[in-house]
UniProtKB/TrEMBL annotation:
Transmembrane segments: 6-30, 42-59, 74-93, 114-135, 155-176, 183-203, 209-228, 235-253, 273-296
Protein species of origin: Candidatus Parvarchaeum acidophilus ARMAN-5
Protein name listed in UniProt: Uncharacterized protein
Residue ranges of coiled coil: none
Record's keyword annotation contains GTP-binding: no
UniProt keyword list: Membrane, Transmembrane, Transmembrane helix
Domain of life (superkingdom): Archaea
């Protein structure tokens, strides 16, 4: 195995693990509005890390496979530009929901749900591009044009994406410990896994016992959450990372269906410098990842978002129990005093 290609696969695995976390956040906002404070607590540390890993992967790919970039531009320039614009919109919505919503006509929940829809489109676009690059589905033989109709008319490609979204929906319950109809967690996860593995076979992607072991581990997470009500968020992220990495390693060097990724690799001296920069950048991003995992392990204290959300839902939440009794009494007394003063004036 080529060291450069393997490192690039590792970076891609981390990126898609974080994208899975964002997909689960988006689903949680749409599924259960009560999950907003809890999801915001975990989403805010991750959103900048996702963007950083995305840029890191793109730069690393450009250095590693410069000769493949013209083909990528010809084939996927529109979906990549669309995903980039939506990514900017996603960042704006997160900032608005964090700072601006308090003094605007838009509620935090509304902004979070618009963010959810934007995130859904981004995830679907990236999954489609990823699948097309590996299988060559939708790309013509000369790799200079992409047929969207050819891509969507293949029901295995639709099943691949739909299976991942069903898995994300099922894991969402365990990741954010959502109790609303949590029986849907194993149902959605197992159904998504069956569709996903079936679609991989149909697309000609190589699978083996490792694929089935990881699928069983993912299913076990949802089943255990249904039975015990407990889950390990780190286990979900690690399993997602290993799943993406295994797909790439099992189909090692496969690109555009029949071509070898090694034929596009940069063999110049730039690779050595690129490897050094990748290692340094990887260490820094790993430290960010460790910090992110640390954020998950913090005590479940009430955050500012939870307090603000409660205030928005109940504007009288800041009034103490004693004041509920004192204020009416004071109003009556003030009214009597006001009446007496009026009588005295008269």
């Amino acid at each position: 195995m080529n060291t450069y290609i393997t490192i690039n696969y590792v970076i891609l695995g981390v990126l898609f693990a974080f994208l899975l976390a964002e997909a689960m956040s988006a689903m949680a906002f749409l599924y259960d509005k009560k999950s907003l404070p809890n999801v915001k607590k975990y989403l805010d540390p991750i959103w900048a890390v996702v963007g950083t890993f995305a840029v890191f992967f793109v730069v690393n790919t450009e250095v590693l496979y410069p000769s493949i970039m013209p083909n990528i531009d010809y084939l996927y320039v529109f979906p990549i530009l669309l995903a980039t614009l939506l990514f900017i919109a996603r960042n704006m919505l997160l900032v608005f929901s964090e700072y601006i919503w308090k003094n605007s006509k838009f509620s935090q929940l509304l902004l979070a749900r618009v963010y959810s829809l934007v995130s859904f489109v981004i995830v679907i676009i990236l999954l489609g591009v990823f699948l097309s690059i590996i299988t060559g589905l939708g790309a013509n033989a000369s790799l200079n044009s992409f047929s969207f109709s050819a891509f969507v008319s293949n029901y295995y490609s639709i099943g691949f994406i739909a299976g991942i979204l069903l898995i994300a929906f099922g894991l969402m319950f365990a990741f954010y410990r959502i109790k609303k109809l949590k029986v849907l967690s194993p149902i959605s996860t197992i159904l998504g896994l069956l569709i996903f593995v079936f679609s991989m076979h149909g697309l000609g992607l190589y699978v083996n016992y490792i694929t089935y072991i990881l699928a069983a581990a993912v299913a076990a997470i949802s089943v255990m959450y249904l039975i015990t009500g407990k889950s390990r968020r780190e286990a979900i992220l690690v399993t997602a990372f290993l799943s993406v990495l295994s797909i790439n390693l099992l189909n090692y060097g496969k690109v555009f269906g029949t071509r070898s990724l090694s034929s596009f690799i940069n063999n110049s001296a730039v690779n050595s410098a690129g490897l050094i920069v990748t290692i340094i950048g990887g260490i820094l991003l790993t430290l960010m990842l460790v910090f992110f995992l640390y954020m998950y392990k913090r005590p479940e204290l009430e955050t500012d978002y939870q307090k603000d959300y409660k205030d928005e839902q109940n504007p009288f939440s800041n009034i103490g129990i004693a004041n509920l009794y004192i204020m009416p009494k004071n109003n009556k007394e003030n009214g009597k005093e006001h009446k007496k003063r009026k009588n005295r004036v008269r």
